[in-house]
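Our working data are protein records whose layout never changes between entries. Instead of coordinates, the fold is spelled out as a row of discrete tokens. Here is such a record, shown just as it appears in the course material:
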Amino acid sequence: MDISIVTGISLLETAALVGPLHVLSLSALGTLVGFIATQYLVVLTYNAFVWPFYVSPLRSLPTPEVGQDGTKMAVYDQFPMGSS
């Protein structure tokens, strides 16, 4: 979500809270900034923690297998040198 969309939604919320005639007054400025900051933090949190693990279509792609020592195995680790 872009900051302009967040700002627009925050303006609408501020207008609903304090009245449409007082949206750009100094008394409503703190409310507007609070709404913008809160919504932007929610969007950042969603994009960082929810989207990649629960919503993204890429979450179900196969990943490399993990070896016995906890590291991801590469193709050359599966066939040690000297074995036939």
In short: The radius of gyration is 25 Å.
